Amino acid sequence: MTDRKPRYGPADSLRTPRFSGVRTFARLPHVTEDLEHVDAAIVGIPFDTGGTYRVGARFGPEAIRSASALLRPFHSGSAVPVFERLSVIDYGDVPVVPGYFEESAGRIVEGLLPLHRAGVVPIALGGDHSVALAELRATAAVHGPVGLVQLDSHSDTSDSYFGVPYTHGTPFFHAAREGLLDPSRSIQVGLRGPVYSARDWEVPRRLGFEVLPATEAHELGMRRVAARIRDRAGSGPVFFSFDVDFVDPAYAPATGTPEIGGFTTWEVQVLLRELAGLDLVACDVVEVVPEYDVAQNTALVAANVVYELLALLARAEDA
Ligand code: MN
Ligand code: MN
Fold first, then answer.
1. Alpha-carbon span 165 to 284, nearest angstrom
2. 247-266 per-position pLDDT tens digit
3. How far away, in angstroms, is 259 Cα from ligand 1 center?
4. Closest ligand to 242 CA?
5. According to the model, what pLDDT value does residue 318 have?
6. pTM of the model
7. What is the DSSP-derived secondary structure letter of residue 263?
8. CATH of domain 25-318
């Protein structure tokens, strides 16, 4: 955009050590007003009662912020000074009502709308994946129907679970039904593991999404997977949703519904770095359940995925 100096960036970790201070994402300033000079905002969505197995993702934002203290401002993989290019804040957490999806969704939408209206890209920290429906309601209210790029071992396109519509297994069914997505620009990557029936992966295809199961993605390799994503999403606005269970549980064990046969952290980095050019208008990283994290591994993976997304946004700015 311009070569202006960004207004918001992280604390200088060469002046005060990274383990000091109040934990915001990457030591960014906590800002909730004056969004004029902000390019991207980290937002916690600590709602986890859409989980159908392990719960506890309400503590995901806190854990990811804690692990993110390790991040440094220069992205060596893409040679990008992320926070020189991008003005980024930590917006804090949006309010939720534990146990009540619809009430929470309303508050999440209200919390995210000011960001979208100000042209800020929200990068949400989940929370379980049910929050994506609320995020998409806010995104589509400003941007219209968006393309979906979903990295996940599950399709999350059931119409209901236990006879109720809103869980972490259903957000993208309802998003499609509500007209929040452009299915012709939507793709799900990484699906794997035991399912209830063959129908589980037919539903997203019937909704009009492209589905690239993990078997196929492993065979293609990450660079060709990235090309498929870029081709599918095109140049229109994209909602990017990263369920941390995309990553193999060897690297990211602390998640709601882990599935083996997943991707390494290096594969994730290769894939994400190949996605430059997507018009990311909203992103999330969800399903971190810190209670099961043995050495902060999963939170560290999530923090670094957010950092890769920031690097993509930074690369979209003029040097
Ligand atoms: Mn999911
Ligand atoms: Mn999943």
1. 21
2. 999 999 999 999 999 999 99
3. 11
4. 1
5. 65
6. 0.97
7. B
8. 3.40.800.10
Close Cβ partners of 190 (under 8 Å, ≥ 6 residues apart): 151, 152, 153, 212, 213, 214, 217, 246, 262, 263
Give the CA distances from residue 216 to residues 90, 258, 262, 316, in Å, rounded to whole numbers and listed in that order: 37, 19, 12, 29
How many A from CA of 155 to the centre of ligand 2?
7
Average pLDDT over residues 128-151: 98
Ligand nearest the Cα of residue 156 is 1
First vs last Cα of the chain: how many Å apart?
9
Query: 57 with 256: CB under 8 angstroms?
Result: yes
For the beta carbon of residue 199, count every other beta carbon within 10 angstroms.
10
Residue 241 CA to residue 11 CA, distance in Å, equals: 28
Cβ < 5 A residues, ion ligand 2: 152-154, 243, 245
Please report where in the chains the tokens 């994503």 appear, as a residue.
229
Judge whether residue 26 has pLDDT over 70: yes
Expressed in angstroms and rounded, the spacing between residue 169 Cα and the centre of ligand 1 is 7
Question: CA-to-CA distance for 77 and 315, rounded, in angstroms?
Answer: 12
Q: Where are the domains of the chain?
A: 25-318
| Res. 6 pLDDT band, cuts 50 70 90 | low
Distances from the Cα of 97 to the Cαs of 42, 60, 165, 197, in angstroms? 20, 16, 17, 33
Torsion over CA of 149, 152, 155 and 160, rounded to 10 degrees?
-110
pLDDT digits (tens, 9 = 90+) for 55-71: 999 999 999 999 999 99
